[in-house]
Amino acid sequence: MLYKKILIITLLASLSTSFLSAQTKTIDLNKLNGNWHLRIMDGKEVRKARAILDFDAEHMMLNGFDGCNRISGALKINSDTSMSSQLSATKMKCRQSIHRYVSKRLHKTMKEGFSITEAIKNGVKGITIKSSHHELFFKWMSA
Q1: Which pLDDT band, with edges at 50, 70 and 90, does 83 fall under?
Q2: Class (C level, CATH) for 26-142
């Protein structure tokens, strides 16, 4: 009886581990090329901010719009699963609080370092960019 319980616990543990690793598949940087629209930030719907990231893997660059300003920066690979970017931005004033909310957190996430994984949120395929403080979900727009 004890052996059966141990076997069941071991099987459940291995299944949950493989399930979790399948849900957090790290994405190849070359697959990121193109425009990505920010949809969800830290569990909050933020589509109206219209933040967009445009990855250029060949030149290791990141461009886009943070909700208030045009942004650009070099991508720096920190480890096998982590990268960062020190973004520079134009100095336009944010129109609404949602724009300030998105802009501030997007810059913080890029600066402190992040990982990128494939994800599905609300039935939409995309990527999750996650740092130690923030989680951002993007939907692919175009190449």
Answers
A1: confident
A2: mainly beta
